[in-house]
Specification:
This protein is α/β, with parallel strands linked by helices and about 240 residues long. It folds into 2 domains: about 180 residues, Rossmann fold; about 50 residues, N-terminal domain of TfIIb (Single Sheet). The chain is built from 7 helices and 11 strands. Helix 5 links the parallel strand 2 and strand 3.
Length: about 240
């Protein structure tokens, strides 16, 4: 059976609904985090579940050797169209070991995680990342802090993209936040559903340490300020594979 993310992330409607993502914010965050990590020019880095490569392209412009991968073939095609010579993109499932290793750093950004029903799949994903890194290399995972959102659910709304109205509804059924998406156009009526697991900072930390990582820091936003459970929009773990 095809899983929801395999279908939804590969549709034109997904790319249309999320075509307003803030590229300047993404670039500023990558500058900040790479400066914090002290990665040298030419470092070999992975962008895991890279989507269309908006973070990968920034990393490539920094002079890093970038490997981006994602399950969505459409996203990878778009990433390749804008790739610099030091960027390579692959269609790959993060639950499977990546065929390249020896990375100096790996990034999993913008909540590109937590979609799977089985906790074992999340655990395996972290182990795959651990094994693709060099000893002493760093792993950065950027995840939403769902706890402040729960008091706002359920909720409904709509967004307009290219004269198409997307009707959206969100609800919480532990441990997932679900978003239903309804859109009508000349091709008919289309209904999709997203879901993402709500992980606490402690649970994400346990996933990292369970895979073998040492957690060096936890930040709460893209300015790398300290994490606050009830108010931070993000949970950003900066972990390291022991040397």
């Amino acid at each position: 059976m095809t899983e929801w993310f395999e279908e939804w992330f590969d549709t034109e409607y997904y790319h249309l609904l999320y075509n307003n993502r803030n590229d300047e914010e993404a670039a500023a965050f990558m500058r900040r985090i790479c400066s914090y990590l002290g990665l040298p020019e030419g470092a070999k880095v992975a962008d895991i579940a890279c989507g269309k490569g908006r973070h990968s392209h920034v990393l490539g412009n920094f002079g890093f050797l970038v490997y981006g991968y994602d399950l969505s073939g459409n996203s990878i095609c778009q990433a390749r169209e804008l790739a610099s010579p030091n960027e390579s993109f692959f269609v790959h499932d993060i639950r499977e070991p990546f065929p390249h290793n020896g990375f100096d750093a790996a990034f999993n950004l913008f909540t590109s995680f937590g979609y799977f029903n089985s906790p074992a799949e999340d655990e395996q994903t972290l182990k795959n990342i651990y094994h693709m890194l060099k000893p002493g290399a760093v792993f950065v995972q950027d995840y939403l802090n769902g706890l402040p959102l729960l008091n706002q659910l359920p909720c409904q709304g709509s967004e307009v993209r290219n004269n198409l109205t997307f009707k959206l509804a969100k609800r919480y059924e532990a441990p997932f936040i679900y978003k239903t998406i309804h859109v009508e156009d000349s091709h008919g009526i289309h209904d999709f559903e997203e879901k993402v697991k709500i992980y606490s900072e402690a649970e994400l930390r346990d996933l990292h340490t369970g895979a073998g990582f040492v957690v060096d820091a936890v930040c709460g936003n893209y300015e790398l300020q300290p994490y606050e459970k009830q108010s931070s929009p993000r949970i950003i773990l900066i972990s390291r594979k022991p040397a």
